[in-house]
Amino acid sequence: MTDNASGLPINQNNNDQNNEKGNGKNNEQTYRQYDFKFVIALLVILAYILKLTLSFPMSGSYGGVENQWYVSPALFPLILLTALFLCCISLLMSSIKQQGHQHFFSLAHWLGNKDNQQVRDRWLIIGLLIGYVYLLIPATDFYLATAVFVCSLTSIFYLQIDQARRTVIAANILLAATLVTIRSTLNEDPSISILDINDLENSILYCDLSTGFTLISLVIWQVICGSKIDKPRVMYNLIAVLIVPLILVMAFSFLLYVPMPVEYGSVISFLNWLIYEQLGI
């Protein structure tokens, strides 16, 4: 027998409907598992913020003036934290009711399917971001660090050059090893970690040279390989990699007067010399 509406056998039509229901149920359970992970992580963050908030003065006498609890700087953060905590508890209970806590302690479930390209790309982006924040920025000029980071991402996801992932990973690992070696070798203060921000001139100079060489190498590689794919796209990419970060650095430093994460480096020193000493702005 066939279903008049679809023209398919009734049994096949029923199987399709059952598969759709099963997939919908699996997707719903997957979403609840994501909710459970998110709310657990958020509760940990809220607990840390609450600890910092409770260190604020609640009441007392300051400068001869008696301050009450309702004018404490901790009051508004505590209100927000309470509201967020209640929302988290509600989401936590909802996710537990729908079996969202399952596979919470499964490492494979946290990392994802290693055969899935999207999962691998997600961890690649996380790795590049961690290296950018905790290694490149403290070690070298902010513009150079940002340009290398953006160049790495555009090579993979915008230009989509063949073997881009392997090339980007190799270049960033080599740069990271070089920066760590430079900072550990030229660091004369044992109390300063290789991840700490410091203004040792020789270390900054050699780190800038290494980062600049990596940036130039990646840009040349992009131009050579990307021109075979799409020349206009290569031009847009060069603007995004080299020009946009420079404009942002200049806008925040000299127009908005917002300090950069680090105030040292070859590029920012040149800009300070150009803007203040030569142009007299």
Walk me through the topology.
Elements: H1 10-54, E1 60-62, E2 65-67, H2 75-97, H3 107-111, H4 117-139, H5 142-157, H6 164-186, H7 201-226, H8 231-255, H9 266-278
Antiparallel strand pairs: 1-2
Domain DUF1468: 40-180
Transmembrane segments: 34-54, 74-93, 121-137, 143-160, 167-183, 203-224, 236-258
InterPro entries: DUF1468 (IPR009936)
Task: Tell me which oligomeric state these chains represent.
Answer: single chain
Largest sheet descriptor: 2 strands, antiparallel
- Evaluate the radius of gyration: 27 Å
User: What is the CA–CA distance across the termini?
Assistant: 85 Å
* Contiguous helical run count: 9
Could you explain the architecture of this structure?
With 281 residues, this protein is mostly helical. It folds into two domains: 2-111; 117-278, no CATH class. Helix content is 71%, strand content 2%. It contains nine helices and two strands; from the N terminus they run H-E-E-H-H-H-H-H-H-H-H. It has helices at residues 10-54, 75-97, 107-111, 117-139, 142-157, 164-186, 201-226, 231-255, 266-278, and strands at residues 60-62, 65-67. It has a two-stranded antiparallel sheet with strand order 1-2. Helix 1 (10-54) runs antiparallel to helix 2 and helix 7 runs antiparallel to helix 8.
Defining key terms:
281 residues, mainly alpha, 2 domains, two-stranded antiparallel sheet, 2 strands, globular, DUF1468 domain-containing protein, DUF1468
